[in-house]
Design goal:
The complex is a heterodimer of chains A (557) and B (411). Chain A is of the alpha/beta class. In chain A, 33% of the residues lie in helices and 23% in strands. In chain A, α9 (249-258) links the parallel β10 and β11. Chain B has helices at residues 37-43, 62-75, 89-102, 111-123, 130-136, 147-150, 154-159, 195-206, 213-220, 224-235, 250-263, 280-291, 313-318, 392-410, and strands at residues 7-8, 20-24, 30-33, 53-55, 58-60, 79-82, 105-107, 124-128, 139-143, 172-176, 186-188, 239-244, 268-273, 297-298, 324-328, 341-345, 356-359, 369-372, 378-381. In chain B, the strands form 4 sheets. In chain B, strands 5-4-17-16-15-6-7-14 form an 8-stranded mixed β-sheet, covered by helices on one side. In chain B, strands 11-10-9-12-13 form a 5-stranded parallel β-sheet, sandwiched between helices. Chain B has a 3-stranded antiparallel β-sheet with strand order 1-2-3, covered by helices on one side. β16 (334-338) of chain A pairs parallel with β8 of chain B. Bound molecules: iron/sulfur cluster and zinc ion (ZN).
Chain lengths: 557, 411
């Protein structure tokens, strides 16, 4: 057995109740093991961790790092790639560009540089699954997976209209299996399809999707229920209606009520927490209060924040109408891509400016969420990379959460309308190290249903980050001392030392051939490809981990 | 995960038809059902070469040739790599890795592809997968192209045979080209030199701009009523699609992309290229995700750079700035250079005057992998027949391995 001994660090492992206690961590053949019984046992390698903070490696549960949308964004922004410093080739690493949408190899290196070991792309069109798996194989070090878009899927909406939940579950499990997905994503349910048809966006939960005679309410509740019944490790991951629209907090709350007790993860909730009315921009503001009260009171709900940071970035979404909306506002270049029977896609460059009242509100609203959520286990750090900003900004967000003085400083530079009205000034809370460990690793892993991630208990993946304690939290979390992935030292003193391939996490289901045949019949009506070319063959997926659903056995492939 | 074999992808043109049922008889002759005539030619065997590999024109084993190729490449100061479009995405991934490792220049595109790539980077695109056109489009415009000739099954499969779930009325097909064999409801005889004027006029009508009738007619070569009618057909579409070819100049492509984007203020409209034979879309995709740009990448500084007109293989050859040329996959292109040339891939050993040639199995017939269609949809290729040659993917993987080993030894 190949062993690594991390000796004497301050272990912060909230899932196992450790909050900075001096302890040893042992890794054997890639997983956490119990300390050997023989006190004289010498590990193959020992890291003297005395004085360092030892945490499970970071887990990003909502980002956009692979597939046709992300790659189109790279192609759209060569000017950024040219201006950026780039990542140099070395004996170990590939070269690449480092824009707001870094190249695939650089994405893996940068996550590792940040002490992260896992990242989940939150929006892949099933038809783009093959592409996403290709990019995943070129995204080293981290374990990764993706959520498959289903909220505007024709066969999903057909099954819901026909009030056939059995059919819905069969279709979903087939789709998850055929695409090698890790979970279910719902984006503007029904709204994207309506917009694709040229009927504009949907603005309420009870409007009908033309041609399908289902409503957003039905789509989200039926899918949430089906995800629960299938026992998927991760709840339905919802990006609801009216993203970015003033006053959208009302429909966000209505959506949470509609889901009626089913597990649901509310994605980038910052973008859904606005007060005011679309016609009067001066009325724009925060409606975090009622939403966070609702989430605090309902344990079936989890959120990630989608924090924005001031600066230039590239917005990308499966919410086609949002892309068009942003293009109208920014007047910048725009990619829109309708994907047959499944979804849309919008990409627009955007700059968040601290002098812009709306942007300043968005910044404050994100932080408000972090500071008003009672239970850190139900909130995950995200910038919705790269929508609100790059994942590279996580250390800045951590610093803001741990230091109210820092928040005050930034707030002082914001427009008066925000400075005087935001609830942020009255929130003295400062995150502890253990709480940071929860929202950056333990909680996202738990919300994703990844039992091997986000903690250091026996059997967990041997993914560990060591930090040098530092009063400057941005520096502390930007420069981990070590990153260990599956027992190998990947990062040491800011330098990459090994580049493991990383694995692809996906679900697996058996599907009845009769069911597949009936899906095929429906498929041919509108598809441009042959049904036999839709599914991704096992050899098209890189080294994989099958994540078990409730009642399924664990398999490593 | 289910594998249903039986249907193959034709790489004969940009349609990448993936419904081809290939029947193989005892003599190994392929009968590609559903393929059009050019497609049948693509599937037919083109006189199998007999050499596994050559070094300076003499027969060799693939292993010895890979050793030699690695030595030449590692010793080179400025290696140039071209010919990505014939490769599968799997092989392309190793090819870009090779260029990166060697600090060379890699390219796949022609000058007209660069025009499209640049237009895209300037304004973006409102586009769709081809199934959206099949299911939704009630207006289809073929701008400057003649799909009946160049993409024989495009209309049948995607663009003209109405069978969509959302089609409430008959589909109107507009062809904008002076000499076209493509059947259409309306044909506007647009000369290549007036394409830009036509696009500008359509955009002006869309914006209700005041237009001088006589000037419009002189500039576009069309009657005022005709171009007005054309604009109104597009504006009243419920979902329109505009297809364009690979030979439009940059300004026209940009204008077309903006026209389509502006149409989305009134209705839904998308722009899609007709696409090209082979796997150009895959090459652009792989180059972009690995190196940040869709073509012409120079890795010599250790970080990828791309500058049109400077970092392309053609430009480097023209300026004699390259000391080895590596041609990958099937390619008939002649490079008119006397620097040492290596060729790896299907039909590679047929090329004359090679320092090293290594034959590869043919993608889609003898080798598995995947390719990308012009709309970005990636399709799997599955091997139909055995080959006596190794796949391009495995040859490039081994070449990369040897290069890395040699570099380490020389360090
Ligand atoms: S239309 Fe093109 S891809 Fe389709 S069969 Fe003919 S040549 Fe092949
Ligand atoms: Zn997102």
């Amino acid at each position: 057995m190949r062993t690594l001994h991390i000796r004497g660090g301050f272990v912060v492992d909230p899932a196992n109740g450790l909050d900075g206690v001096v302890a040893d961590v042992w890794i054997g053949d890639g997983s956490i093991i119990a300390p050997p019984g023989d006190p004289g046992f010498k590990a193959d390698r020992t890291i003297d961790a005395r004085g360092y903070v030892v945490m499970p490696a970071g887990v990003d549960m909502h980002c956009h790092i692979a597939g046709s949308k992300v790659n189109a964004a790279r192609g759209l922004r060569p000017e950024q790639a040219r201006e950026s410093k780039g990542w140099s080739r070395s004996e170990l690493t590939r070269s690449g560009t480092t824009s707001t949408v870094p190249t695939s190899f650089v994405t893996g290196y940068q996550y590792a540089g940040l002490g992260y070991g896992t990242a989940v792309d939150a929006a892949i069109a099933p038809l783009g699954a093959r592409h996403a798996h290709h990019e995943f194989q070129d995204t080293p070090i981290i374990d990764k997976g993706f959520l498959a878009l289903m909220g505007n899927n024709h066969q999903v909406m057909d099954a819901i209209r026909e009030q056939n939940p059995g059919r819905l579950r069969e279709y979903m499990s087939w789709l998850l299996n055929a695409t090698g997905a890790l979970g279910v994503k719902v984006v503007n349910p029904g709204g994207v399809e309506t917009w694709k048809q040229g009927h504009g966006n949907l603005a309420t939960l009870d409007q009908q999707v033309p041609g399908f005679d289902v409503t957003p309410r039905q789509i989200m509740t039926e899918l949430a229920q089906a995800v629960d019944q299938l026992g998927l490790p991760h709840p339905m991951h919802l990006h609801g209606l009216n993203l970015g629209v003033p006053g959208n907090a009302a429909i966000c709350e209505e959506s949470m009520r509609a889901i009626d007790g089913h597990r649901t993860h509310m994605a980038h909730i910052q973008f859904h927490s606005y007060g005011g009315t679309p016609t009067d921009l001066d009325s724009f503001g925060s409606s975090v209060g009622p939403l966070v009260d609702y989430v605090n009171a309902h344990p079936n709900l989890t959120v990630d924040v989608g924090q924005i940071l001031f600066g230039e970035t590239t917005s990308m979404t499966a919410d086609g109408p949002v892309g068009q909306f942003l293009q109208r506002v920014t007047k910048r270049k725009w990619v829109s891509n309708d994907i047959e029977m499944e979804t849309g896609c919008g990409i627009v460059p955007i700059e968040y400016r601290d002098k812009n009242v709306v942007h300043a509100w968005q910044w404050a609203i994100g932080l408000e969420w972090y500071l008003r959520m009672d239970d850190p286990w139900r909130i995950a750090m995200s910038t919705d990379h790269p929508n609100g900003g790059s994942f590279l900004a996580y250390p800045q967000v951590i610093a803001l959460l741990m230091d109210r003085g820092l928040r005050r400083d930034v707030l002082a530079s914001l427009p008066e309308a925000v400075r005087t009205k935001t609830a942020l000034v009255d929130l003295p809370r400062e995150y502890s190290l253990a709480e940071i460990a929860i929202i950056t690793r333990a909680a996202p892993a738990r919300i994703l249903g990844l039992k091997h991630k986000g903690h250091l208990g026996i059997g967990a993946d041997g993914d560990v980050t060591l930090y040098a304690p530092d009063d400057d939290k941005t520096r502390m979390f930007s420069l981990p001392r070590y990153l260990i992935i599956r027992g190998d030292v990947v990062l040491d003193g800011g330098e990459l030392r090994a580049i493991p391939a990383g694995r692809t996490m996906h679900l697996a289901f058996e599907t009845d051939p009769d069911v597949v045949r009936s899906i095929e019949e429906q498929y041919h009506r509108s598809a441009s490809i042959h049904f036999s070319h839709f599914g991704v063959d096992p050899e098209e997926i890189g080294p994989g981990i099958t994540v078990p659903c409730d009642g399924q056995k664990e398999v490593q492939s | 995960m289910p594998i249903t074999a039986g249907r193959s992808v034709c790489l004969g043109c940009g349609c990448l038809c993936d419904d081809i049922e290939v029947i193989v008889d005892e003599d190994g002759i392929l009968d590609p059902r559903h393929a059009c005539d050019p497609g049948r030619i693509w599937f037919s065997h083109e006189g199998q070469p007999t050499l596994e590999a050559t070094i300076d024109g003499s027969t060799s084993t693939a292993d010895a040739a890979l050793d030699r190729a690695a030595e030449i490449l590692v010793s080179a100061q400025a290696p140039l790599i071209t010919g990505l479009c014939g490769l599968t995405i799997e092989a392309q991934r190793f090819a870009v890795a090779l260029a990166d490792t060697l600090g060379g220049v890699i390219d796949s595109s022609k000058s007209w592809d660069l025009a499209r790539q640049q237009a895209f980077a300037r304004v973006g695109i409102v586009t769709a997968s081809l199934g959206e056109v099949k299911a939704r489009a009630d207006v289809v415009v073929f701008f400057g192209v003649d799909p009946m000739v160049t993409h024989p099954r495009h209309m049948e499969r995607y663009s003209a045979v109405p069978e969509g779930r959302f089609l409430t009325r008959a589909r109107t097909v507009i062809v904008a080209r002076s000499n076209s064999k493509t059947p259409a409801d309306v044909t506007h005889r647009v000369d290549p030199c007036s394409q830009l004027a036509v696009l500008a006029t359509l955009r002006a009508i869309l914006r209700n701009a005041w237009l001088d009738r006589a000037r419009v007619e002189t500039a576009t070569g069309l009657s005022f009523e005709a171009i007005q009618g054309w604009a109104s057909t597009m504006m009243t579409a419920s979902y329109g699609a505009c297809f364009f070819g690979s030979d439009l100049p940059a300004a026209s492509i940009e204008s077309l992309l903006l026209l389509v984007r502006e149409l989305n203020e009134r209705t839904r409209f998308v722009a899609i290229g007709l696409g090209q034979a082979g796997n150009l879309a895959g090459a652009e995709s792989v180059l972009t995700w690995q190196a940040g740009y869709p073509s012409a990448i120079d890795f010599s500084s250790g970080v990828p750079h791309s500058l049109v007109g400077d970092t392309s293989v053609d430009a480097r050859l023209a300026r004699s700035e390259g000391d080895v040329l590596l041609i990958l996959g099937q390619s008939d292109q002649h490079f008119g250079t006397n620097i040492p040339t290596l060729a790896i891939g299907f039909q590679a050993t047929r090329r004359l005057g090679l320092a090293v040639g290594i034959e590869g199995a043919r993608p889609g017939i003898e080798a598995r992998g995947s390719v990308a269609r012009v709309d970005g949809v990636m399709l799997p290729l599955r091997a139909i027949q055995e080959s006596s040659y190794r796949t391009e993917e495995s040859l490039l993987r081994d070449l990369l391995g040897r290069v890395v080993e040699l570099q380490a030894r020389r360090r």
